[in-house]
Amino acid sequence: MSDFVAIAADDELKPAQMKRVVVDGKRLLLCNANGTHYVVDEICSHEDYSLYLGCIKDGRIKCSLHGSYFDLATGRPTCEPADEPIRTYEVKVADGQVWVRV
Ligand code: FES
Questions:
Q1: Which of 18, 23, 51, 67 has the fewest Cβ atoms nearer than 10 Å?
Q2: Cβ(76) – ligand 1 distance below 6 Å
Q3: pLDDT score recorded for residue 2
């Protein structure tokens, strides 16, 4: 567990909920998509806009500014206008907590 950081209790987020966290100075978003936890960059790759203001649907997160969706597992945009991926981070659930490696 050396470089993993605990960022939430494993039952803190309900499906489709998210939480903003800062780890090592990076603004990240913990997302619960149908019970699976993902961590991605908080800020959209298209413009400087928080994905926290969007919503989670079918394993993807939607940016509410221009409507791009990003796959939470890969970070890739699945529709325009964004054409760059957002970063994804390794997550694990252990000891009642959700951990991320940045
Ligand atoms: S800022 Fe996210 S799609 Fe434009």
A1: 67
A2: no
A3: 66
